[in-house]
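Thread: Newbie trying to understand structure tokens

Hi all, I'm a second-year student working on a class project, and my supervisor (Dr. K.) asked me to get a predicted structure for one chain before our next meeting. I've only ever worked with sequences, so writing a 3D structure as a token string is new to me. If someone could post the tokens and maybe explain what I'm looking at, I'd be very grateful. Here's the chain:
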Amino acid sequence: MTTATDRHPRSYIERNNRRTRWFHSGVYAISLLLLGTGLWLLGGWEGRPSPLARLTGVADTDMHTWLGWALTALTAFGVILGWRAAITLVRGSVRFERGDLRWFLRWPLALFTGRFARHVGHFDPGQRLMNFALVGLLAALIGSGVGLATNPIGPTFVWLDRVHRWATYLFIPVILGHVIVAAGVLPGYRGVWRAMHLGGRLPIEVARRIWPDWTSRHG
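---
Reply by user tm_fold:
Sure, no problem. This is what the structure looks like when written as tokens:
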């Protein structure tokens, strides 16, 4: 069956390859399950099985621990096997351009108009900050989670538990912001969700609106 992409190949551009999309999907699926089970336990309902616990027959505490190990393993394999992509992520996120301040000043209005200030690089300035926040908080959650699983008692456990809780509290607004932007709920980001779905191909006019420099080099 011929698709619109096949009929007009130049009207679409691939933003993310298959391995990147699968890794991203695995991380956010496990993270959302961890967030759900974690909030259930933080709510003081440890003795009351959650809907997920009833469905799987696995206690919420065990489910949360197993999911944590799964995220740890996935992240480790992703960094090891995709080390080039990891380097690209770091390099693309640490850069700073003189036009970044102008981009941020125009960003609130651009959320609705789509008229973003031009920027250079693979990620826009907002994405760079989001990358730092997401990677940093995930590292704090994974590190403290591993510590809690391997040090179940003592003062170290108390300190790690505090880190884990606060990282969770900070992670919630960050992930909500990421989902709202990435889902294209706001007019300025409409269509951007395709960068991680449906083959990672999005309309080239959307790519030009969000990542003009990247699009000119890859389009």
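A couple of things are worth pointing out once you decode it. The chain has ten helices and two strands. The first strand starts at residue 12 and ends at 14. Feel free to ask follow-ups in this thread.
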